[in-house]
Amino acid sequence: MTTNAESLARWATDLAPTPDDLALAQRSLLDTAAVALAAREHPVATIASGLPDAARWATLGHVLDFDDLHIDSTTHISVVVAPAVLATGGDARAYLAGAGVMARLGTALGWPHYSAGWHATCTAGAPAAAVAAGTAMGLPADQLTTAMALAVPGAGGVQNAFGTHGKSLQVGFAAQAGVRAAQLARAGATADSGALDAWLGLVGGRIGTVDLSGPAVPGGLAIKVFPCCYAMQRPIAAVREIRDQLDAGVERVVVRTPEASILPLIHDRPRTGLEGKFSLPYAIATAVLDTYPDFAAFTDTAVGRADARGLLDRVEVELHDDGGDDLLTGEVDIDVECAGGSKRHTRLARPPGSPSRPPSAAEFDGKLAACGPDVAGRLAGATWKSVASLLRTTFPRVPEEHS
């Protein structure tokens, strides 16, 4: 019987990208590179400086939580796959091969896997990065199958890391695990092609044939408008729709939302900027207090503001189960009571940047500009080769010193 690894490897080998697929790949390249460049001054840039290229670039591309997301699989596809491709001299087709495998594996892992506490970006990411790197290296289908099996030991990551450096670092580990697996497969390593299916069952995935239908990346990718967890995009956008109507200060906020939609938001009382990126109460606070919740809104100083701390205590959350199983299930419904006695109501199903509300060219250019005044210029006419060179120059590897 054909294993899922064999089927996915054959799919990746036979992939013939459409113009729409290639457009998605180019947007993903720009988005991932821009967000990585925005992290130039982040402490993680020094912490991760000794890691190999794929691990270093994936870590930097994820630490600001501004990178794209595949809704159906709840995975950050590009930040794992693009660095694996860039580190191995690949192109758009290699990216799409890895991205397509990651979307399908992540969907097969399903919501039960994510809701159990796994970080699906890492678990689905390592085998997908193996396909991306292997495709960039020109591996045939049988060696891609082996590479996926060899990546299984590196397919791990947990949500307890959210709000710490561990979240972005474990994404980097997944990208590098894929590159390492592809290199070993190319060198002649052997592995059981059924390892991927065995692993799927062990981590709670749906055991069966992975769906190979549809475009390279089924469902497309969501582009973040705010630099924080995707589960915060919708409540922030909803409050921003009524922000100009709030007067005399906010006395009480009631947020009603499906339980599944805020699963990653594990910090009700954030203490740091990183924790603030995973906090529903802080999503409300920054949406009320900040004209635009940008990088400055997610610093330790911003999260520690007295007015922000005060708002956290006035946010009430009412969760319900609508039967949905992704971060955009149902809709968010918010009531705001102001000190002057006025009341405002807002509700939202799909935030800007979601696949059904893709960013316009101007909005996407605005995101690039938000990543730094020189980022758009440095990425003008970007190719996979030029971006790899840019990242190597901007983030040179610093060998570890051994005493």
Automatic annotation (TrEMBL):
<dbReference type="Pfam" id="PF19305">
    <property type="entry name" value="MmgE_PrpD_C"/>
</dbReference>
<dbReference type="InterPro" id="IPR042188">
    <property type="entry name" value="MmgE/PrpD_sf_2"/>
</dbReference>
<dbReference type="InterPro" id="IPR042183">
    <property type="entry name" value="MmgE/PrpD_sf_1"/>
</dbReference>
<dbReference type="InterPro" id="IPR045336">
    <property type="entry name" value="MmgE_PrpD_N"/>
</dbReference>
<feature type="domain" description="MmgE/PrpD C-terminal">
    <location>
        <begin position="226"/>
        <end position="377"/>
    </location>
</feature>
<dbReference type="InterPro" id="IPR045337">
    <property type="entry name" value="MmgE_PrpD_C"/>
</dbReference>
<dbReference type="InterPro" id="IPR036148">
    <property type="entry name" value="MmgE/PrpD_sf"/>
</dbReference>
<protein>
    <submittedName>
        <fullName>2-methylcitrate dehydratase PrpD</fullName>
    </submittedName>
</protein>
<comment type="similarity">
    <text>Belongs to the PrpD family.</text>
</comment>
<feature type="region of interest" description="Disordered">
    <location>
        <begin position="343"/>
        <end position="365"/>
    </location>
</feature>
<dbReference type="GO" id="GO:0016829">
    <property type="term" value="F:lyase activity"/>
</dbReference>
<dbReference type="Pfam" id="PF03972">
    <property type="entry name" value="MmgE_PrpD_N"/>
</dbReference>
<dbReference type="InterPro" id="IPR005656">
    <property type="entry name" value="MmgE_PrpD"/>
</dbReference>
<feature type="domain" description="MmgE/PrpD N-terminal">
    <location>
        <begin position="58"/>
        <end position="198"/>
    </location>
</feature>
